[in-house]
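Q&A log
Question type: sequence-to-structure
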Amino acid sequence: MDPFALPLVLLCLLLSSAAASWEGCGSGKVIKGSKTYLCIIVSDLENWNGTAVNGVNSGDVTYKRYVFRPTADDFTKIALSDTWINVGSDADCQNCGVEGNACPSCQDNLLRNFTTPSVHVQSVNSISYIRRYRGLHSGVHRTFPYMTAIVTVDMGDITGITWDEGCTFCTDATCAPNTYDFAGELYPAGPKACYLDDTECANGASVSEVCPLSVYVVWTGTDADGDYLTSSEMRFSNFKGYSLTNFAENARKKYEDVRSYTDYEVDQTTGT
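Response status: OK
Response body:
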């Protein structure tokens, strides 16, 4: 088993309060070239089992669940709309995170609901660890924009979902641990990730195209017919020497055939 994959037994224990009836994300075996299921879950970075973290009881977990049907083994980009609005142009977003509360009037799709928007990926009965996307980090508002999920498959059965190494596009100075478990605790052995200060994402009234939330997805292993899944060879950690600020341009040039998905079904649920 991949050491960065979250064991299903542990997952069930951690989600016992927040999602006792969790049934996964879709069903069926993975077949290369056919539609499969992928769910992006956005929540605050907190304890999913409802117990205290740093002396604070998280209570029920509120999250947004985005359901996609990508084609298995296509190098895939999943983009969520309105996920990085320049807070300087929206007075209702000014104190998001600073006051420790979500901002219900904010135009930003995530800051409107979450203080520290974080992401994990589900597919059929497998799930990844959590990655922080935005919020206060070391006292500074920052964005961790680079995310690639690697779906591992054995004869059509998904055996794990891991995060690719996320510091391909930055130096050690802007690379930080960014893998969390479902108790809201940092997972020290997990891959790190690059970050940008939010002031680097905002350029006047515009926003860098690097910063809105996108999750790239690749597959590895074998499908239900025994055919090899090879899209993992396209993951960004295989290509060194890029800068994060030039990430979007480099991605367009190198991955012109990337399949982009922006349509989704939304199921926003409060855990019980």
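Response note: Residues 7-21, 52-56, 268-272 have pLDDT under 50 and may be disordered.
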